[in-house]
Design a protein that fits this description.
By secondary structure, the protein is α+β, with helices and mostly antiparallel strands. The chain has one domain. It has 5 helices and 4 strands. A hairpin with a 2-residue loop joins strand 3 and strand 4.
Length: about 100
């Protein structure tokens, strides 16, 4: 194998490890998602707590989806609508976690 092939393999392995670390826990997946949404300060400084209301209200649906809702204590404010982005849904897919905005409803 030539040097270019080895470099590609090393780069792919490194990206895979980084992706795994950033999505290996629900909190890390949520922080990564908020960071990528464009709110790095909120991603790094906000505490993450269980969203008791949504977890109780949607308990069956979340169990089927293998998901849990979380709330940011210092949520970011969306620039366009001035909406507060506080509630997020974190789903587990095998050993990998993904996060998405869940809304305030």
């Amino acid at each position: 194998m030539n040097i270019a092939g080895k470099k590609k393999i090393i780069i792919l392995l490194t990206l895979g490890i980084i992706l795994f670390v950033l999505h290996s826990t629900p909190h890390m997946a949520l922080r990564t998602h908020v960071f990528i949404m464009g709110y790095p300060k909120a991603a790094l400084t906000s505490e993450i707590v269980d969203d008791v209301y949504h977890n109780k209200a949607d308990e069956q649906k979340f169990a089927e989806m293998n998901a849990k809702a979380y709330t940011l204590t210092k949520p970011p404010v969306e620039k366009a609508t001035q909406g507060i982005l506080s509630n997020f849904l974190v789903k587990r897919i095998w050993f990998f976690f993904t996060a998405e905005y869940y809304g305030d409803a």
